[in-house]
Amino acid sequence: MKKNRTAVIIAAFAVFIAIGFISVMSVKVGGREGYFGTPLIFSFGGRAELRNTIEIPLSKADKLRLDYGSKNIKVYPAEGDTVTIKEYLYSNKPEARAEVSYGDGGNALVRGQGRSFVIFGFFVGEGERIEVYIPEKSLSRLSLETGSGNITSETECVREDGVFEAKAGSGNVRISNVTADAVALEAGSGNVRAENIEGSVTLEANSGNIDGKEITGDVSADSGSGNIRIDKLSGCITAGAGSGNVTIEAAVISGDVALSAGSGNVKLVLPEEVDFHFRGETGSGNINTDFDEILSYDKKGDIAEGDAGQNPDIKIEAHTGSGNITVRYR
Asked: Are 112 and 87 in contact (CB under 8 A)?
């Protein structure tokens, strides 16, 4: 019995090796498609290689949208007057490459294919990825979307009166060095990291963390089950976490602040020169501030309110369901 079992294992492994070597890169099986409409792949030792290059002249389109099913997207700076997109893919088949379409008003849409569904084999290298080379401050709108990959950009590719959007279904979004009229970053089940961002800024993570640094403008941050932390905020902010903590360190406060946490803590660090009206409320936690002497508490001690400074025209509100509220001066 043991000999028969060993023979079966050896035979199965031999079949696996044979299939891998027969299709070194990738083969579409019988014309059928796998899950999510992507080709079924047999592969052994394959790797993602540069399979396609797309060039979009800025004279033809200054609004660009990339929509990929499950690939990593990274943006790099470039020179000249052309946007270049390089697709590093497992398959060299034409149907694996993105389709490009142009619309009215200078719009260009690059719609990519989903990731190949692997039956046998393994891949080496970084995996399938999309590299986007954009001249700095050249686009009036850039929208990046991927289903299960990461999105990364560290370059100023959008004009100051433009719009920058990035959305990952189950990957991370890491964006820095963007000054635009509107910036929207979203991750379904990954983390959002934003640094050196200016504009009307929206940060959203369904089940991940939001981490921001040097954010300037009117900021909205929302996390379902992760933490929110923003350092060196300049502007105003509304931030809410369902079951995580909210920590905001403000360098400059120029508008209202509203912070909330369902079952986490809220911490706010303020510049000393700001005047404001404060209201804090917690369901079953404590309220601790550097200006307790000007606050009025209710009998239970879970609601505190008062004015700080001579001209308290800014409202600061903090609310927690079952966590603590802490407000300090820098």
From this structure: yes
